[in-house]
């Protein structure tokens, strides 16, 4: 069983339990449910913005504990002031130590588009994402059938949210891509071996249709990576560990984005 299989199996049980506590109607009655989402495509694709999607991530299956002390609201405010084009908040508790409250805390201090970074396996999580103020969601091709990806993308679009489809290879891209999606992310992390290589982004760049904003995800640790990926048409750069492993992730983002 791969780590992704374990995460998905756990997620299905977790979502079933969450549904027992809060119904869809409960989610729809939350005040943030009616908030107009901010366009991630516009912010990340803008030539006048950094393109950095700065992530709040306490721990991960590949690295264990990354940062056990950073306060999400301080980091979110700092990422915004640093000039991040978007923020990613891990809301998975079991494997990443995140919560939906983290996203709510980030939302309360930051106007940038925020992605609910989780393993979406049920429409309920998309409605929940809207109810906590997320602007866009992640759909991971490796966790879903093409039918599910397309169906979930349509649900998000109907709610006014945008979709970042994450792929690892050309087969996933071709099978899952859909007009209801907005951004395509290439994950540089092999989820079986945890090895990271930006060569994955470079190899897939020309296969991604131009109507989607291209995002390179994982293992980005220096400005040279960004400069190189930009020549392949990437506009978005998802960075987690490089900021979160420091004592002050916001300052790390300020220093990094300041060099762009
Ligand atoms: O990060 C992991 O170990 C991981 C394991 C299994 C599934 C997903 C995983 N990461 C999620 C992410 O997408 C990354 O947090 C994100 O791309 C940022 O990566 P990095 O800059 O390398 O922290």
Automatic annotation (TrEMBL):
Keyword annotations of the record: Amino-acid biosynthesis, Aromatic amino acid biosynthesis, Decarboxylase, Lyase, Tryptophan biosynthesis
Catalytic activity: 1-(2-carboxyphenylamino)-1-deoxy-D-ribulose 5-phosphate + H(+) = (1S,2R)-1-C-(indol-3-yl)glycerol 3-phosphate + CO2 + H2O
EC number: 4.1.1.48
Biological-process GO terms, alphabetical: L-tryptophan biosynthetic process
Functional pathway: Amino-acid biosynthesis; L-tryptophan biosynthesis; L-tryptophan from chorismate: step 4/5
Source organism superkingdom: Bacteria
TM region positions: none
CDD domains from the UniProt entry: IGPS (cd00331)
Pfam families, alphabetized: IGPS
Gene Ontology molecular functions: indole-3-glycerol-phosphate synthase activity; phosphoribosylanthranilate isomerase activity
Residue ranges annotated for the Indole-3-glycerol phosphate synthase domain, each copy included: 4-252
PANTHER family: INDOLE-3-GLYCEROL-PHOSPHATE SYNTHASE (PTHR22854:SF2), TRYPTOPHAN BIOSYNTHESIS PROTEIN (PTHR22854)
Family under the similarity heading: Belongs to the TrpC family.
The name this protein goes by in its record: Indole-3-glycerol phosphate synthase
Gene it is expressed from: trpC
């Amino acid at each position: 069983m791969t780590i992704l299989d374990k995460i998905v199996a756990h997620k299905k049980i977790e979502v079933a339990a969450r549904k027992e506590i809060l119904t869809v109607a409960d989610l729809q009655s939350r005040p943030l449910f009616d908030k107009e989402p901010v366009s991630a495509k516009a912010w990340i694709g803008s030539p006048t913005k950094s393109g950095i999607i700065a992530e709040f991530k306490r721990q991960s299956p590949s690295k264990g504990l990354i940062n056990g002390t950073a306060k999400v609201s301080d980091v979110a405010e700092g990422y915004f002031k640093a000039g991040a084009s978007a923020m990613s908040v891990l809301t998975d508790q079991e494997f990443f130590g995140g919560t939906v409250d983290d996203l709510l805390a980030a939302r309360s201090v930051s106007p940038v588009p925020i992605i609910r970074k989780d393993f979406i396996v049920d429409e309920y999580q998309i409605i929940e994402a809207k109810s906590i103020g997320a602007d866009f969601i992640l759909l991971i091709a490796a966790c879903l059938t093409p039918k599910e990806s397309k169906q979930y993308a349509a649900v998000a679009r109907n709610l006014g949210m945008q979709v970042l489809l994450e792929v690892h290879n050309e087969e996933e891209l071709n099978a899952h891509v859909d007009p209801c999606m907005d951004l395509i992310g290439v994950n540089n992390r092999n989820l079986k071996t945890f090895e990271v290589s930006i060569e994955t982004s470079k190899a897939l760049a020309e296969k991604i249709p131009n109507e989607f904003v291209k995002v390179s995800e994982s293992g980005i640790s220096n400005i040279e990576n960004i400069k190189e990926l930009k020549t392949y048409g990437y506009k978005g750069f998802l960075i987690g560990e490089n900021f979160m492993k420091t004592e002050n992730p916001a300052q790390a983002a300020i220093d990094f984005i300041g060099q762009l």
